[in-house]
Amino acid sequence: MVLRIRLARFGNKHTPFYNIVVAQARSARGAKPLEVIGTYNPIPKKPTNLYDDNANARPYKEIALDRARAKYWLGVGAQPSDPVWKLMGMAGLVEPKPTTFHKA
Amino acid sequence: MAQRIQSRRVSNALLPYLTSSQSSSTSSISSTCPSSQLFSRQFSATAAPQTKLRRQMFQWLSTEGATLKHHIPGETNYLSGRAERDGDSNEAPRPFPGNRNFLSETVLSEELRNEVYVRVVEKKKSLRAVSVELGIDMKRIAAVVRLVEMERRQRAQGKPLALPYARAVHEMIPTTPLAQEGERQPFHEPINDLPAHPSTGAQIFYPVPESRSFTRVDAGRVFSGAPTLEKAVADKISHPSDLVDDIIENPNSIEWVGKGKNARQVLQPADVRIPHPQLVKLELDRKAFPNERRTVAQRHAERLEKQEAAEKQRRELAQARREKSIQHVEPERSRFEYRIQDAKFTKETVGVDGRAPWAPGRRYGIPAEDRKRGMVKIPTRVEA
């Protein structure tokens, strides 16, 4: 069966928080995964201690990722789901997925 | 079932007396206007006679208390410690005469707090130096800088400020003024205070031969259960403050005792642990060279500079180490910045079963206790 690297939702209502997990593709979202390799907090945080020079800094989202384990699982054929592909693309672990649309 | 409390308008019975301009005798009110009595005594069925204490209260309100009705700007309006009324300016301001231990501490005046901001942010002086100059605790200096910064940002954004409130409060509480040109700045608070260390609470009977010197350094070692210093090392320390320089340069040089969970660092003498250890050296220098004020000041400045440089370097190293493990990504098409932190999900970091409570991420099969009673979710401290 296919192994997937995907997000598993935690957190309460309106406060999502995801573990980045390696799991069998057909297992339930909340089932115990093979392994947790990271976390992703999709709620943007405002940077603190903003002074005039960097007052326009972007809000940030936090990702924690075990790169060694991610590389290993990718090496043995685990397939990232689309959201995880996006995160891993930013971390430089996989080629970013080509977008299906092009802005004019 | 009859209603216990009649549904009438509830009012503060004292208010008419306190707010009325003419101080009226209460007995006349109770006898002449029954409607007012009824109005002020809603919860009682019987007409209680005027008690002695109540009579005394109204007497006080019309005589001594009348002066407290309006405060004098720039002075406290406390029952005791008001210079003009009592003719006693030395007495500490005590808002509660029954509680002699409660002293109303002074707060920073507007000018002083602005001066703190100017010195730290515009003149680029260190918190430590400003703290010594103005006699304000370093933590308070840091807080003032943050708050003034916030105020300026709010002004820039055109947000309303509670200025009348601030003015009124500052008129009524004691404040530490900013010294005029040529005056000596009054100290706002003691800056070199040290809380009692818990390990000094033990009562230890430790016999020492009279021929041996036993200093604060040795006492700290006894309290932390460390072996006595070797004589060669101990002889090099002429004063406990000699240890300061080494420890500031390298805080990891403090010795450890105990094993495993009980491991602890050797308790250092107070000369090292106080917020401004360099002031001890300054005082020693002043005593040793009473006529060379300039040299003493110069040496003090050098020490301060050295200490600040060491602290700055250490801070920068720690920051660099933190930054090294975080990758900042700002995708072109996104409004957000992504901070990718290296994490290690190994047996050591997440436990044998992957369920260790300190492990990153959320756990499986372990209830989240964030809704439990007593769980503190708001931040309880600010990193300076």
From TrEMBL, chain A:
Source species taxonomy: Eukaryota, Fungi, Dikarya, Ascomycota, Pezizomycotina
Domain of life: Eukaryota
One of the protein's GO biological processes: mitochondrial translation
Organism expressing this protein natively: Penicillium cataractarum
Protein name listed in UniProt: Ribosomal protein S16
MF (Gene Ontology): structural constituent of ribosome
Family matches, as NCBIfam families: S16 (TIGR00002)
Record-stated family: Belongs to the bacterial ribosomal protein bS16 family.
Cellular component, GO, one term: mitochondrial small ribosomal subunit
Record flagged with keyword Nucleotidyltransferase: no
Keywords: Ribonucleoprotein, Ribosomal protein
Pfam families with a match to the protein in the record: Ribosomal_S16 (PF00886)
UniProt key word Amino-acid biosynthesis: no
Automatic annotation (TrEMBL), chain B:
Protein name (database record): Ribosomal protein S35, mitochondrial
Species this chain originates from: Penicillium cataractarum
PANTHER family given in the database record: 37S RIBOSOMAL PROTEIN S35, MITOCHONDRIAL, SMALL RIBOSOMAL SUBUNIT PROTEIN MS45
One GO BP annotation of this record: mitochondrial translation
One of the record's GO molecular function terms: structural constituent of ribosome
Domain of life: Eukaryota
Annotated stretches, region: Disordered: 72-98
Pfam families linked to this entry: Bot1p (PF12298)
InterPro entries the record matches: Ribosomal_mS45 (IPR021036)
One GO location term (cellular component): mitochondrial small ribosomal subunit
